[in-house]
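Dear H.,

Thanks for agreeing to be a second pair of eyes. The structure we're designing against is below in token form, covering all 79 positions.
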């Protein structure tokens, strides 16, 4: 398990979600992705995307204008 960072600051919807999706596609199950954003829409968009795609939102918060989300990557096992 490794931790990775994604800077999606100053990007507007839907780009933070698209960048998150693209980065998670390159990671392994169990990896952690820490996403930083400034678009307040991510507080609902990224958790919804995680639920739909089976990833775990571990934490989210905001300090000033910086929003941070911590996601555990979960990829379904292939047969």
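And this is the sequence the design step returned. I haven't edited it by hand at all.
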């Amino acid at each position: 398990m490794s931790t990775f960072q994604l800077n999606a600051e100053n990007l507007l919807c839907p780009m933070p979600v698209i960048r998150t999706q693209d980065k998670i596609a390159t990671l392994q199950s169990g990896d952690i992705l820490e996403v930083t954003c400034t678009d307040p829409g991510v507080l609902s968009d990224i958790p919804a995307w995680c639920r739909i795609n089976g990833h775990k939102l571990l934490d989210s918060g905001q300090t000033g204008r910086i929003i941070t989300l911590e996601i555990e990557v979960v990829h379904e096992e292939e047969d």
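Two observations from my side: The mean pLDDT is 95. The chain has two helices and four strands.

Warmly,
E.
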